[in-house]
């Protein structure tokens, strides 16, 4: 790929990272709302303590990721949740995710793990809070 194309398209990377975070977290959030609130559809299985805990983490983690608030730690926790879900619920049905119906858990796991390393992207409350903190430090330094 010519260098000018790489440079031209790379300026959109932080914004696309935010779009991916928002849409992935929004979809993830609905898994939790199904378990806890029966929305957008009722959950198929009776809730046990493990599923109830997963639902709470999906709702809270999904909401934090949608907002881009505490993105790195929230993404790390829900990435672990999805790894746990994959091994508890899917891997016993065979090795291949396409056959054991674990593709979503696997993709969520690695997508959220990426967010824990890459951060929230350009549009997030984390970024807003960071820029406000930097502005405050700058104002204090200028006042001194």
UniProtKB/TrEMBL annotation:
Main location: membrane
Domain of life, source organism: Bacteria
Protein family membership: Belongs to the DoxX family.
Coiled coil: none
GO cellular component, one term: plasma membrane
Subcellular location: Cell membrane
The organism of origin for this protein: Phyllobacterium endophyticum
Annotated keywords: Cell membrane, Membrane, Transmembrane, Transmembrane helix
Transmembrane region(s): 12-30, 50-70, 77-99, 105-125
Full protein name: DoxX family protein
């Amino acid at each position: 790929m010519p260098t000018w194309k790489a440079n031209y398209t790379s300026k959109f990377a932080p914004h696309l990272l935010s779009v991916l975070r928002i849409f992935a977290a929004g979809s993830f959030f609905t898994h939790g709302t199904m378990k806890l609130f029966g929305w957008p559809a009722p959950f198929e299985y009776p809730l046990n303590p493990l599923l109830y805990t997963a639902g709470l983490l999906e709702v809270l983690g999904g909401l934090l990721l949608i907002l881009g608030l505490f993105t790195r730690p929230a993404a790390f926790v829900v990435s672990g949740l999805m790894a746990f879900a994959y091994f508890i619920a899917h891997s016993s049905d065979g090795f291949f995710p396409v056959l054991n119906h674990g593709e979503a858990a696997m993709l969520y796991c690695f997508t959220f793990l990426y967010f824990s390393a890459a951060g929230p992207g350009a549009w997030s409350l984390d970024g807003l809070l960071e820029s406000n903190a930097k502005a405050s430090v700058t104002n204090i330094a200028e006042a001194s």
